[in-house]
């Protein structure tokens, strides 16, 4: 048992601590004060920028309504349409090729796994611009007299597709591995072939899991399609960035580039919102 003097000392320490606590600031209060200080710094920075910026010059060069009106309707009927086409073709090629590479990555045949691993590492490591240059210049040099079929659409789709396939393959592989392995074993025990089980049972579930990241990949491809400006495209084959850049050079004003950026947002923001909604629905379904 504790001696009375020891208990008295502990009681005195506890009472002293309780009396001293109000003098200090609680952790929650410190966090609130820190947050208000950050808000204040941000507000001061915004006000300073607003006061120091040359708004008339900014409006003249980046929000010139007369220059913007000259873009329509061609920026929609040509630039926006071609961007959507290039993105869709690249996504389709990337999805099909990515599925093949993912299945090779999971194959029990070593050469298939080696090829898939090398493909994924190489095309995830190369800048997309180099892939565009190789498709547009390297293919005709490697195969004289031959070009990627489909013109600018084919070249852009192949360049975007082979790069996206490396990322999609890893996404698809993770989706397949997320499906309980017992389902494949149960299907095989019922007499289904491996390919039949994958087509009918595993892949449908895997794709439901990976829809959100695939949607994010679609957003990235939409932005990456801007690299088509490095290809020799005609006026009717220009996508948004090329369209805005050409008009900005003709008008001597950067407003066309801003309008082109807004058109990109018209495509990417709904896709991003869709991706987040699908992720939330998937999380609710897992609870």
Automatic annotation (TrEMBL):
Family matches, as CDD domains: TM_PBP2 (cd06261)
Membrane topology designation: Multi-pass membrane protein
Gene3D superfamilies linked: MetI-like
Subcellular localization(s) per the UniProt record: Cell membrane
Main location class: membrane
Keywords noted in UniProt: Amino-acid transport, Cell membrane, Membrane, Transmembrane, Transmembrane helix, Transport
PROSITE patterns the UniProt entry points to: ABC_TM1
Region of interest: Disordered: 1-23
Residues passing through the membrane, by range: 35-53, 84-104, 125-143, 255-274
InterPro entries: AA_ABC_transptr_permease_3TM, ArtM/GltK/GlnP/TcyL/YhdX-like, MetI-like, MetI-like_sf
Keyword hit for Membrane: yes
Residue ranges annotated for the ABC transmembrane type-1 domain, each copy included: 80-275
Domain of life: Bacteria
Similarity-based family: Belongs to the binding-protein-dependent transport system permease family.
Xref: PANTHER family: L-CYSTINE TRANSPORT SYSTEM PERMEASE PROTEIN TCYL, MEMBRANE COMPONENT OF AMINO ACID ABC TRANSPORTER
Protein name, per record: Amino acid ABC transporter permease
Lineage, opening ranks: Bacteria, Bacillati, Actinomycetota, Actinomycetes, Streptosporangiales
């Amino acid at each position: 048992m504790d001696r009375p003097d020891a208990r008295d000392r502990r009681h005195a320490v506890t009472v002293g601590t309780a009396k001293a606590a109000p003098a200090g600031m609680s952790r929650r209060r410190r966090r609130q004060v820190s947050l208000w200080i950050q808000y204040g710094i941000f507000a001061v920075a915004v006000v300073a920028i607003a006061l120091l910026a040359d708004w008339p010059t900014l409006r003249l060069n980046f929000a010139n309504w007369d220059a913007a009106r000259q873009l329509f309707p061609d920026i929609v009927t040509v630039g926006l349409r071609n961007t959507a086409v290039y993105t869709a073709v690249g996504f389709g090629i990337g999805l099909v090729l990515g599925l093949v590479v993912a299945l090779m990555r999971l194959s029990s045949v070593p050469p298939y796994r080696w090829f898939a691993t090398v493909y994924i590492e190489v095309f995830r490591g190369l800048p997309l611009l180099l892939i565009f240059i190789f498709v547009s210049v390297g293919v005709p040099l490697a195969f004289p007299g031959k070009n990627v079929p489909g013109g600018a659409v084919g070249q852009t789709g192949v360049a975007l597709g082979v790069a996206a396939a490396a990322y999609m393959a890893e996404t698809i592989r993770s989706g397949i591995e997320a499906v309980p392995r017992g389902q494949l074993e149960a299907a095989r025990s019922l007499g289904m072939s491996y390919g039949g089980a994958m087509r009918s049972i595993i892949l449908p579930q895997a794709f439901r899991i990976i829809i959100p990241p695939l949607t994010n990949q679609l957003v990235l491809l939409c932005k990456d399609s801007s690299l088509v400006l490095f290809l020799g495209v005609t006026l009717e084959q220009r996508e948004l960035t090329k369209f805005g850049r050409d008009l900005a050079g003709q008008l001597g004003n950067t407003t066309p580039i801003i309008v082109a950026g807004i058109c990109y947002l018209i495509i990417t923001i709904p896709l991003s919102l869709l991706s987040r909604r699908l992720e939330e629905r998937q999380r609710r379904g897992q609870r």
